[in-house]
Amino acid sequence: MEKFNRLSLCGKIIIFNFKRASATNDCDRSELIFSSLAFEQEDNTFLKAADGAAIISRKRSAHVDIVKCKCAINVQKRVTTACILVTKKSEKGESFQYSLLTLSSSNRLEPCIEFKLPYQMRETVYILHGPTVLWSHTGNVFYASLQAGEVRQIPIQVSHSVIGELPLHKEHVFVLGLHNLSDQCTPSTSQTLGYFVESGQVFDGTMILPHPYICITRCILVLSAEKVDDVLKSAVIAATSNQQLVYFENGIVKDVCQLPFEQPENIQVVNTGRNGCLFVISFHEGHVCAVWKETFQIASHWSSVSSVHVDDFLGCGTDQMLLFFKDQGITGQPLDTFLLTDLCGISYSHGQDSAAPKTPPPSPENDLLTLRALESRLQSGLTVLQELQREVRVKDRVLQQSVRALTDVVSESETILTQHEQEGLIALWDCDDESRDEALDDKTQDMPAVSSKPQIDKLWHRITEERLVVGVILTTDSSVPVASVSLSILTETGQSSTPAVIQTQSQVFWLPAPCSSSSSSSSSAYMFSEPAAKRSKQHNAGRPNDLNTCRLAVTAVTRLTPLLNSGCVKCHVMLHYVQRQDAFALVSNPTPVVLHCGQFALDVHSDFQTRLLKNPDLKTDEVKEDLLSLMAVLDRWVFHIDSPEHSLGDIDSWIQKRVGCKRIEVSPQYLLLNSSGPSALMLLHWHQITPFQGELSVHSSQLQALQFLDSLLAYLPASCSIQPVKGTKGQGATQIFSLALEKEMVSLIECVSSLLCEEEEEEEERKSLGHEETPEPGSVKGLQRCREVFQWDVERSRMRLSPLVDVGRYRRLTQSMSKAQLDGDLAALLGTRRTFLC
Amino acid sequence: MSDQMCQPLSLLYRWIQENNELVDKCKQQGGGDALSPDQNKTHLRWCSSEFHKLLKKIQGIPPLADYLQLELTVVYNACLCSTAQSQFSEAELLLTQATERVLQMTGDAPVASDPPVFWRTVLKSVGDTALNPCVLYLLCLQWAIWLSTCQLKTIQECQDELFSVFETLSTGVWDEGRSELRGKSSDIPLLVMDPRRLFELLQICTIIAQGAESLSEGRSSEALSGLQTASSLPAPRTLIAYTHLLSGSCLAHMSRPQMALQCYRKALETDSRCVCALYQSMLIYRQLGNTQAEIQALCLLHSTLMLPFATEPALAGTRLLSPSLLLRSQSLSSLLSVPSALSVLHNLALKCVHHERVSDGVEYYLDLLAVLHSEDQHGVHAEGPPLPSLPELYLQAGAALLMARRPADCMALCDEVITTTLELLPEKVVLEEPEEKCEAETRPLCAEGDDRVAMLLWAGAAYLLQGHCHTHLKDWKQAVTHYTRCFNLLVKVRFKKGSFQPQIPSTDMIGKQGTDLCILQRLKGLSLAGRGISFTQTDQLREALRDLQLSMQAFPECTSAGLWCGEVLWRLGRRWEAAACWEKTWSFTPQFSVESLSVYLQEPQSGPLLDSSELRRRIQELGPPLSA
């Protein structure tokens, strides 16, 4: 690529060139000539203001070259001067003589720094404040300056150096680099160091550039810097090899702009005055790009530019940029094609195809944003309009319906309402026959009111962690209200014969009927499963569906140690319950009954280290008892989980996937979580009500339950709610209440139907007495009779709808009904009181 | 020195902070539901552009191991925002860039563009590092993009990789990794959407889309098994309802209508806004011939469609990616389509009129006309069969009114039809019988002629209905006038078959049912019969006989014409002929089902009636024919 040695100084362009006077003159000398050009607004051209020359070498064979020219502040003269670095290769090519010349105010070239190097500078050379010449060679950074007077090496070993200038008071030129601890460019193996050339001070480089950027920064421009309390504050622009222009403030990335070209070489600032600042980035191969400082967006870009200069060429007080384009024209004049602009109104160009000022294209992103804003406003307006229209429509409909109703009233025609409208219901296509079937089922069910005392099936005891659990499995009928059942333990120590009642906590569990315990058979043989609605009617195991007999497990828990005071102790287990007189009255005539269930002996010498549920895979009675004991010992919480918008998914399998989770074979609805030691046993029971609702029973210690819930919450959908179900401890209460309500309903149905049936019978009798023969409608009299029969029929059917009943019987009905209702009320009261207690 | 060592992290830390703040802002907006949809949209757009900006910063540095997890997280967030805005190509570009950078970091060469191979390589090159879940999340997003762009095949090919996502999520690597770091939670880059939720959503949406696809390709049982398992997956209510709905459609295809009905019912139970379940079950009832249930379902469907639907509530967690974005397949949307409220109303009205619920039907017709008049095109956007033209509706409503014994209203409606069509009536019109095989193609061609014929037929039908009304009111003179007007209009139609000359259509040319020719003949027959019956009432027996006989010629199945023709013959003393005429009339079996014809083309039930048993008695009294 051709090298253009131009620079701008004080609104003028200075061009340097070598002139080899070998052909014309005898003495072969290399002459460095320069010319200074100023812009003439009237002629729209650059006119020569001054020129001059300096002899660099007189030797013929010397190979002289311009390395770089740039303006830099001369510290001694305190003035910005044009500097030009020239190199002279020695004849043998083993050493290189470098000299930095400065252009004095009297347009004379004066040598400033001279040094000799055994190599040629290959990488980028910087001419910076001082003037200081900086270059890097084989991983080291060297510099030569007026003050130093010789070539010096930066004392720290860095790779990937970034060199720049800070507008600080004392320290200007800095070198940033990664201080390698190994080969790689990672924070763990290297650190970012900064080095001030003037003072030799080392500082933390991340205050200027964050670590990852050191490797990729191609050029840097410090906008501002100051030291506050010895901490460096800076605003920096860097162009990276990733085609980005990054704006840093104190080492923090503030903004990023994607650049259109690769290989950035230089960044300059154009201060356009009121219109803000522009960054001009020049790239390899003559691309140039201008970026607004305020918006950090690209203002304009050009290609095939030979050089870019920023200065006040017009002398108007603000900066402009001057772009010289590579010559495409015939003229061959180097400065023929140029563009002088600040992108804010000033624009002079020459030699370009389009003489018109190249206005920056408006950022397409801005357009897009405006468009989007307008679009969203339009949309919101539209929705408001649609809502209004919808409202109007609803109003219209209401009006229409009202008017129709009104006209119906006026014209005395009956308003036609469909059946479900009358009922205020929306009928789905539910067919009625199902409910009819159920009603039939209910009727056929009769209730034998035979009360018998509960039958004790099994008595067992377990010891776990200083607690004794005694349990009884019994079969009972509906005459024994579950709420009233409890166990007590009477101790009989060896010496004294008077038994003592000890304090226990009693609990009742429903057990599934023995026949239906194996109802968990799966029917997956079908090619596809039927809809669940069809299947769910078949059985509901585990519920006391048979009202007459039910199996209960009653447990009592007590502290073990007081029992063992006297070595060996005999315990009698007593069952307490209330016998009801008839099936309908719930607590009307309570007769407390005590039943002796059996006895067992405890010895202080026996081994108390039993562990419950050693093997949940077994299916023995022992395990069942273990389970019941565990449930008696552990605290129990029931949580209702409701997720209205999002279905819950397979929570059961989620629980099973947890560490140490096993299904208890004896009652497969329970899962045992045995994660950490015997003290942390946890029983879980998940009951999915609908895909959106479920109930979780947790038997465990409080802390564990909380931990479990916490992890469950993370799994559950965000919109879901977990509510503890009230009255979990007295779970019997709700059942009692529901039973009471059911009985109330059943008794109402039965009473009323019996009342009506008897009425009917009487009527039948009356009818049999009355007219039986069908009258012949032929005669007038017959017609009369016909009419009578018809009217009587009408009357009868009306009577059937609102029948008359005997007062006495009605009174009896109300009496029994109020009794049943009273029982229901009582059960409700009981239930609520229990929930309060819990 | 240690302080300096921390410095490089601060950039990472800051970016994490920036990401987390953005995520918070993004989520916060979802908390306040008071915002309108387009405010949400603007917010989403803002979030998206912010994430992209952040990503641009992060991707400005070379891919470093420390930064890559953050970068992939931000890619996830940005990509999710883009996907949520349906900018799929942008999102896909992000994914490719990100994976390229991952490969660059691990030092593997870029790979082929075949998606399964590509992702397999990326996952392999990441190995079991901390980046693995991040890459899996990106794969989830790729999945979302595939799903949104209906690339079900690609999803199928990548099934194994997608399953590995599930395993990662279900083994709880993410959760545990999180809880470990919970202490310094500000150091973990947050995600805008829980990947597990995203996975769940994608899973069910994929099953639904695949189910719809298989269903449309006729593989119902295959689709069914997938859908049934999907119904127990964790998912938003709407989607669960869709699985039930599609299961129902599968079962309906497998000719198990009752089970299909159960499924539709479950769909509705799950999500009451699943109107298409209601519509589908209505179709099943129609197919089963359960008219009462069909009417009920139509009625429900209509009232549901008239409900001002609340805009879809913002689902927590899935708010960013709405299921509708992921379910865009053609086959699914056709399954989910529901006709417009007006079309449903019309159907309902027609059903009621056809099935002895005339008064309801009339009300529905009047509702329909009122809605049409208020020019309130509610639900016009809905797909489905278009409504019949307005005159047609008027005539149907008129016929219904007459059935409901409201002749005055009927006449008013007919007047309306006549006044609108009168000026447009052609002097003469030629009806061309389209060639049978290319009927479908020629239809649109002769649309203009059709229009004119249709116009004429409407006007004729209107006169016919008016005639019926006057008959109903026993105003025989007026009835004769209107029947005559009808007939006069109808004779303007000439019929042209093939290359023959246009001629007056005759009985033997009766075309297929539903064609204009058939309607024409029917109208003629009915108008003549009506006039004949009116003449009998005014004792103009000869005119009556002529008209009735002509009527039977034009439209042999006209029962009233046959019976009355016999009656006239009887009165004229031609008893044997009368008996033969009656016998012949009774022997006819109606060729067309009642529902396939427009209501107004059916024989009126309101005119003077002859008791068939009485007629039979008369025949019996007459004894066997003397001749023989």
Automatic annotation (TrEMBL), chain A:
<dbReference type="GO" id="GO:0043240">
    <property type="term" value="C:Fanconi anaemia nuclear complex"/>
</dbReference>
<dbReference type="GO" id="GO:1905168">
    <property type="term" value="P:positive regulation of double-strand break repair via homologous recombination"/>
</dbReference>
<dbReference type="GO" id="GO:2000042">
    <property type="term" value="P:negative regulation of double-strand break repair via homologous recombination"/>
</dbReference>
<dbReference type="GO" id="GO:0036297">
    <property type="term" value="P:interstrand cross-link repair"/>
</dbReference>
<dbReference type="GO" id="GO:1990414">
    <property type="term" value="P:replication-born double-strand break repair via sister chromatid exchange"/>
</dbReference>
<dbReference type="InterPro" id="IPR033333">
    <property type="entry name" value="FANCB"/>
</dbReference>
<protein>
    <recommendedName>
        <fullName>FA complementation group B</fullName>
    </recommendedName>
</protein>
Automatic annotation (TrEMBL), chain B:
<dbReference type="InterPro" id="IPR019734">
    <property type="entry name" value="TPR_rpt"/>
</dbReference>
<dbReference type="GO" id="GO:0036297">
    <property type="term" value="P:interstrand cross-link repair"/>
</dbReference>
<dbReference type="GO" id="GO:0043240">
    <property type="term" value="C:Fanconi anaemia nuclear complex"/>
</dbReference>
<dbReference type="InterPro" id="IPR011990">
    <property type="entry name" value="TPR-like_helical_dom_sf"/>
</dbReference>
<protein>
    <recommendedName>
        <fullName>Fanconi anemia group G protein</fullName>
    </recommendedName>
</protein>
<dbReference type="InterPro" id="IPR039684">
    <property type="entry name" value="FANCG"/>
</dbReference>
